[in-house]
Amino acid sequence: MASVLKCSDACLATADPLSVATCIQSVDRIPLAEEIAKHCLSLNQHIDVMVEVNTSGEESKFGCKPEEVDAILESVQAKTRLHVRGFMTIGALSTDEATVRKCFSTLRSIRDSAIQRGMIPSTAFELSMGMSHDLDWAIAEGSTMIRVGSAIFGSRS
């Protein structure tokens, strides 16, 4: 079973997170990609990464701005230890279906454009979007990975 890691700078300081992860879904800036690549080199490992994009524009969310995606992709593609697997986003904090689905369709468009322009290979098609409360909308917009922690473990306290 593949393991996926949501990573920050602090996660790389823990006891060898790359020994258990096969994919990091939260690459949202070039310095983080560089640090992950450096860590992979020291371990003689490769890892799949997903570019996290803040498609809602909410300041409470992590992720790069949509207009920053190309620069991050270029940086990741230049690192032989990192392989782009796709993109990740968290939908808007809203109960309005159109608002949330717009976040997901924006990410799908970013992915499709990157593939069409040859920035990433067609094998980098993964879209990690949708959580327990909005997974139906995410799947309708093309999600290939959903995060269902609260449906399994309950809400955070």
User: What is the name of the CATH superfamily?
Assistant: Alanine racemase
The CATH first-level class comes to Alpha Beta
The succession of helices and strands, N to C, reads: EEHEHEHEHEH
**Major sheet description:** 6 strands, parallel
Count the DSSP helices: 5
Strand order of the largest sheet: 1-2-3-4-5-6
Second-tier CATH architecture: Alpha-Beta Barrel
Percent in helix: 25-40%
Per DSSP E runs of 2 or more residues, the count of β-strands stands at 6
SSE arrangement:
Layout: E1 4-5, E2 23-27, H1 30-43, E3 47-52, H2 69-77, E4 82-89, H3 97-116, E5 126-131, H4 135-140, E6 145-147, H5 149-153
Parallel strand pairs: 1-2, 2-3, 3-4, 4-5, 5-6
Helix pairs in contact: 1-2
Task: Explain briefly what this protein structure is.
This protein is of the alpha/beta class and 157 residues long. The chain contains five helices and six strands. α1 (30-43) runs parallel beside α2.
Model description:
By secondary structure, the chain is of the alpha/beta class. The protein is 34% helix and 19% strand. The chain contains 5 helices and 6 strands; from the N terminus they run E-E-H-E-H-E-H-E-H-E-H. Helix 1 (30-43) runs parallel beside helix 2 (69-77). It is globular. The mean pLDDT is 88.
Keywords, separated by commas or semicolons:
globular; 6 strands; TIM Barrel; 5 helices; 19% strand
